[in-house]
Amino acid sequence: MATLTKTDFHFPGQTGVYHGKVRDVYTIDNDLMVMVATNRISAFDVILPEGIPYKGQVLNQIAAYFLDASADIVPNWKMAVPDPMATVGLKAEGVPVEMIIRGYLTGSAWREYKAGAREICGVKLPEGMKENQKFPEPIITPTTKAAEGHDENISREEIIRQGLVSEEHYKVMEDYTRKLFELGTRMAHEKGLLLVDTKYEFGLRDGKVILIDEIHTPDSSRYFYEEGYRERFEKGEQQRQLSKEFVRQWLIENGFMGQAGQKVPEMTPEFIESVSQRYIELYEHITGKKFHKADEADLADRIKTNVEASLISLRKDF
Prior knowledge:
The protein is an alpha+beta fold. The chain is 34% helix and 26% strand. The chain has eight helices and 16 strands. Helix 1 packs parallel to helix 7. The longest helix has 24 residues, at 167-190.
């Protein structure tokens, strides 16, 4: 299957480009952004060697779905979705902090807790918790947003002390984070899912905090199936989940956690197809919509044509 793992666009008015782990972000006239969701996949802050068919489309369309659903409570960057794999929106000054919020003790937080940690990012955790247990209240555990390498846990106090963001803006980010998580939790429940944890990124535009990047996608979030959660938890069994965690678990089982000297295991066609199907499953489950596979022939040409037409239209209205 065709996958888009690298882009090299030159859009009219382009003034910059940033190639992230999964998304490539093009700056237009220093005022707009074109975000292309590629088919790359990353885990443990490492880009894996094979692309996943339709993954970019899934991520872009889920993000658009939730950005639209949350726009009345948190301002965001999105202006248009001209292509299944691309979004055009407002450029903002990125804040070098990712706001991670957790409703359950799982993933990296559980691994730290199991190893003896009782405090994460300045948040104290009670004794006697079990894997996948729900917190009394969701906790916010920010990380630095590293340009390269691993993101690092950081406390609220240290963020403000280092001047990564002002205290005033951080309070707004915290408030928005809780509101978005509450909305995402409610929307997940309506589809029989539990929003376990997720991350949000914010930027500053005209001195105000706005939501940027993606939200509530399988790359940025973890979902459990609500049905059977309690029974599995009480038995100490693994939860049925829709997230990228199964990719991380597959890597761990095959001896890879992003550490120096470790080699990414072979990604067979069967494994790649299974990952693609899991992404599509999450799209359909969380949105309640049928996933329509876009034509993946000449992906780059399709995106270029659609984005350029959108930029012409937006410039007339903007």
